[in-house]
Amino acid sequence: MSSACSVCDLLVVGAGPAGMAAAWRAAQNGLRVCVVDDNPAAGGQIWRGGPPEATVWFERIRSVDVEMINGARVFQQLRPGTLLAETTSGVCELNYSSVVLATGARERFLPFPGWTLPNVMGVGGLQALVKTGLPIEGKRVVVAGSGPLLLAVAAYLRGRGANVLMIAEQASSMQLARFAVGLFSKRSQAFELKRQLKGVPYRSSCWVSEAHGKEKLEAVTLVRGQKRWQVDCDYLACGFHLVPNVELAELLGCSIESCSVKVDAFQQTTVANVYSAGETTGIGGLDLSLVEGEIAGFAAAGKHDAARELFPVRATQRKFADLLNRTFALRSELKNLSTPQTIVCRCEDVTLERLREHTSWRSAKLQTRCGMGPCQGRVCGSAVEFLFGWRAESVRPPILPVRIDSLIRKQSV
Amino acid sequence: MSETVMLAVNGIAVEMPAGSMVSAAILKTGAHAFRRSVTGEPRGPLCGMGICFECRVTIDGEQHCRSCQTVCRNGMDVRTEPQKSTEEIQPQKGKKSTKETK
Amino acid sequence: MSSKTYDVVIIGAGIVGSACAAECAHEGLTVAIVEAGIIGGGATAAGMGHLTVMDDSEAQFALTRYSQQLWDQMSDALPREVEHDACGTIWVAVDDEEMAEVRRKEKFYAARGVKAEVLDAQSVAEAEPNLRPGLVGGLRVPGDSVIYPPCAAQYFVDQAIGKGAELFLGKAVDKIETGGVRLRDGSTISGGLVVNSAGSASPALTRGLEVKKRKGHLVITDRYPNFVRHQLVELGYLKSAHSMTSESVAFNVQPRKTGQLLIGSSRQFGVDDSHVENAIVTRMLERAVEYLPRLGKLSSLRAWTGFRAATPDKLPLIGPHTENERLYLATGHEGLGITTSLATAKLLVNQIMNRDSAISVTPYLPTRVVRGAAHV
Fold first, then answer.
1. Is B48–A126 a contact, with Cβ atoms under 8 angstroms apart?
2. Which of C223, C230, C298 to mutate: most B Cβ within 10 Å?
3. Is C22 helix (H, G, I), strand (E, B) or coil?
4. pLDDT-derived band of residue B93, with 50, 70 and 90 as boundaries?
5. Which residues, listed in sequence order, are joined to residue C120 by a DSSP beta bridge?
């Protein structure tokens, strides 16, 4: 089993927009930078496959001297200043003076009857699959859940030839109207999306109450007010906005507030030399991720004046982020979609009725094994938080399943 | 830019654009069940980004690989062949193990 | 808080406390179970759930043997979640010295009616194809089994409640007083007798208790059904358990009914913090991979720790406190709490009711503990 080692001034975990921005600014300012990411190429989720709108950023990262380690997932801290990442061939030891955690976000999934059927996927999930080779032309797709991702993905899928039957957004039209007003600065993007989605029904206060099918998805039932109707489809892309990936930050001892990593004006966490930027510090969209990344990169390189110059941009983007999160807050009806037999923990097939027997996450985990499977609570955790108000506990290494061999690690001096 | 790779999914040859993920290759063959859950439900990819672990399959003999995070390579052998659930292997009825004592 | 006076107040709803509660309630005693955290959340959640007969001393043998018989009698009634599986144990021998130990063990068990079979190199390889080649043999003990301890503790609590016991969950005991316990929130629960079954927290409640925390690590893998079929333990395990050094590891791997492999074991004195320690996990897994080379490629899902309650003479404390007759102890089970929980409950209740037990209680009496015996 081969073992690689890297030494740098600044380690950037995550090669999405925030990570790329941080790496670029830090490298520009003389730091030796190493970027590590699980995916085969940079771009994170939103820029998977390197779309045209990201070109300038990809050029920027190529224009500086940055060590890019792909296909590597960080799972443990060996000691302060050293993280371990697993690859297909072994373990990388990543030594750094400071680190930027740009670990992004994941979708929030809520359980409902039939949600475990094959071809029921996340919104970003279906997009990722299509971007990585799934043929979608001519397939009937219902896009549902909540968040601006619904529109972006519906437009993308349509562009790839999918028959997008409708978009069901649980937020109310009033919430959405306020959001539309607040989108003024992003109006050109909004207009473009509207154009791309011409003819696709977009319903607010609407959600999927059930997915039907025997061995895979065949149809969904939609609900809007008093109306219930069924739609035959091949894929359901359903996700309820995003939650930050804070596990690595927690492992390093960073304070977490409102499920996001707490940072100061210079994107520094509560742990010295540990920065965080992007969705990890709070869901806020692409532009906020980029500016936070730049600030973190400047700050790590000691260029605080340059960082300060970006504060006004960040402030504006944070207002958008606040609007975003208020708009797409989840309605309480979504708590009642599941029946007692609906599976909540997919790794261990734990049903709602079994979870209801417990009054704490710890007790539920120990007795039902909910959250003890390979996803380590990343899928069910957000669901039980919404359903029961249970918060996840502190993390332990490994923060991702890894080979036994990868846990065998001598401390090198 | 038409570089492709050839791999086998459950013994079926599949051609995919270079850089595709194994999950897409599996779906392309029409298979939708990547694995069986602990109670035997058919499961396929959910998150597309490597955190849900529903897309796990056996790749070149190694079990529990996340197909949505694995790039297709020439000659790769992918098996979804839904495994028996552990319920089938070790029946829960009658709390004693079915293993024979020699 | 209730103004009722219970016959027995049991502190701690780990597997020992909950088994005692069930037995007391079954006896017709009124029981209050007081648990600061969650049921089975202490050492019970970090135990391997291996129900095994130990031969390192007559007293250890008597207790584990009696208790295993009780588990066997109960096994059909255990709910599915307890995952009782009579997979048996194989003690693995790497050299002739260990093989001699295998033969000694077999004779010891045979003389006491415990079925055990000496395996030669070929048989052990056939029984467990994933063990490395070159092992000398082993001892197969088919009567051993495994369970999932937290659900067993929950089952015992349910049994106790079914017979009228009351559960006080999330209530920490601050002090054991005459006539009951005082909780951290200031309220009291009155009891004719108090049982301190608080595991590694028991010395905080009873002064002078010679019980020390002994940290252990565990790792669990994803599902690989039939990778191993028996609980596999190295013969050096007892060296680790009896060692007075500050840290040791031993090969100990268990097949769960889920198909997952539970990997232990490690022991550390003098560490108070529950963090997963890379150095210990490394040592423990290196040892495991020595015996099961293919283990290295398997996917591990989680690592966690727990604190055993260890006594100087490696036997638990079961019986009335030396000075306070209204206080009973059921603690200090080190690595055998899961196995011996049922026998502990019987011995405890019989002493409360002033009756003989199926085995002698003398070796486990708190009065036998020699003051000043030091843990290294």
1. yes
2. C223
3. helix
4. very low
5. C137
Q: Cα torsion for A254, A260, A264, A267, to the nearest 10°? A: 90
Query: What residues does A244 pair with on adjacent strands?
Result: A105
Predicted local distance difference test score (pLDDT) of residue B96: 37
> pTM above 0.90?
yes
User: How far apart (Å, rounded) are the C-alpha atoms in residues A341 and C216?
Assistant: 37
Which ranges of chain B would DSSP assign to H, the alpha helix? 22-28, 86-89
Residue A181: what pLDDT? 78
How does pLDDT run across C253-303, given as a tens digit for each residue? Answer: 999 999 999 999 999 999 999 999 999 999 999 999 999 999 999 999 999
Tell me the pLDDT tens digit for each residue of C111-128: 999 999 999 999 999 999
Counted residue by residue, chain B has a size of 102
8 A C-beta contact, residue A370 and residue A379: no
Chain B nearest-CA residue for C142: B101
Average pLDDT over residues A351-358: 97
Do B89 and C224 count as a contact with CB atoms less than 8 A apart?
A: no
Contact across the interface for B90 and C87, Cβ inside 8 Å: no
Q: What class has domain B4-84?
A: alpha beta
Pairing of strands C50-51, C89-93: unpaired
Residues of B in contact with C142 (CB under 8 A): 101
What's the average model confidence in pLDDT over A13-42? 97
Q: Most C CBs within 10 Å: which of A404, A405, A406, as the mutation test of the C interface?
A: A404
- What stretches in chain C show pLDDT beneath 50? 371-376
* B89 at C interface, C-beta within 8 A: yes
In this predicted structure, the answer to whether residue A108 has a pLDDT above a threshold of 60 is: yes
Tell me if C301 and A374 make a contact (CB, 8 A cut-off).
Answer: yes
Is residue B87's pLDDT more than 60?
Answer: no
Question: Smallest Cβ distance to A408: which of C37, C285, C298?
Answer: C285
Cα C12 to Cα C167: distance, rounded to the nearest angstrom: 10
Q: Say what the ipTM of the complex is.
A: 0.94
What band does A358 get if pLDDT is binned at 50, 70 and 90? Answer: very high
DSSP E strands in C59-205: the ranges are 89-93, 117-120, 137-141, 145-146, 166-169, 173-177, 180-183, 188-196
pLDDT at A199 over 80: yes
| Strand ranges for A17-102 from DSSP E | 33-36, 66-69, 73-79, 82-86, 90-101
Tokens of C134: 């070159």
For C75, which DSSP code? G
Question: Is any Cβ of chain A less than 8 angstroms from the Cβ of B11?
Answer: no
Q: Does C76 touch chain B (CB under 8 A)?
A: yes
**What does each C-alpha distance from C191 to A58, A231, C11, C19, C250 come to in angstroms?**
72, 63, 11, 18, 42
Which pair of tokens denotes residue C205? 């409640």
Cα B76 to Cα A263: distance, rounded to the nearest angstrom: 44
Q: What is the mean pLDDT of chain A?
A: 95
Chain C residues within an 8 Å CB radius of A368? 81
By the 8 A CB rule, do A365 and A371 touch?
A: yes
